Amino acid sequence: MSDDTVVVWDESLLAYDMGDHPLDPVRVELTFALARELGVLARPGVRLVKPEPADDALLSRVHDPRYLAAVKVAPRDPLFAGFGLGTSDNPVFEGMHESSALVAGATVAAAEAVWRGEARRAVNVAGGLHHAMPARAAGFCVYNDPAVAIARLLDLGAERVAYVDVDVHHGDGVQQVFWNDPRVLTVSVHETPLALFPGTGFPDETGGPGAEGSAVNLPLPPGVGDAGWQRAFHAVVPSVLRAFRPQVLVTQCGADGHRLDPLADLNLSVDGQRATYLALRALADELCEGRWVATGGGGYALVEVVPRAWTHLLAVAAGEPIDPATLTPPAWRELAAARRPGRQIPLRMTDDVDPAYEPWQPTGEPSAVDRAIAAARKTAFPLFGLDPHDPRD
Q: Which residue intervals define the domain Histone deacetylase in the entry (predicted)?
């Protein structure tokens, strides 16, 4: 296996553009500009790969052919409605099929590079469109690129694929696609569905008949900060991954859990997000011989948060984390100010937050976070032969 890191990138990925919409491709543009200015993309062993669109046969591994046909025809029909398209969340836009297929193809290219041993890790920050359903657009997502990439891994011979979703929203589309497939474990850490779209992701969602335990959900209360989030993540995610023994780890690394994100209610920092990426890489190294496919996802603080978070993700995948105290380069600040005048441009790669946490223990008066941990462990852990009350499990 090569020790290289593949970064799938081409400016054509910015064409996934819904217009005046929260999911603005400027966040991806500014991520790559920041990573380039900080030298991440020029590191030895980092290879930029230009994506090709996923074809209909590959997309149909996840999506209904009738839905693909609708996505193709919708931009030519000003009165089109149906399949979740033409809504405020998922407006129809020119080139919708082509740009969505390219995002899916980019994540597939990342997965193929890792599975074939051409790279140890691969990243598509333009991906992570985890809400798209087999026959319906949802939550800003047209084609579900993580699910398409996982289906491709299964076709290439993977027997156990773990998907970990740390977006603030539940990874509902990926969970739905593999609900009945015991070869795929989906784990989602998200804000409670009682408070946030898409209204799913409760602990009792554990997989379909014959695939019990294929879904693990850890919903957290609004307002959780880094210490609580890290405590919850480490109390649940490593244990179920170790029990599942994946051959490859696929992750959705949405940055919308940040305290500045306008669409959600968690209180995370860029420093906490960086710590999560390090934890995911460590789990891939421990369990999958390093095989890690990382995607972006949500994130709507377009200048203040997403470029820094995903530049940290790229750096972690490329082998050497960026020192949080690093200054953002002046050239990047100028570009960010030009793209979004009036926004507060970050001066450093840190929010000056220590993401340290106290490991979970089943003792004392539980906090809201500890109750969420206990609910997830009580529901999921017995399905893996784990003791929900034993902190060693």
A: 21-315
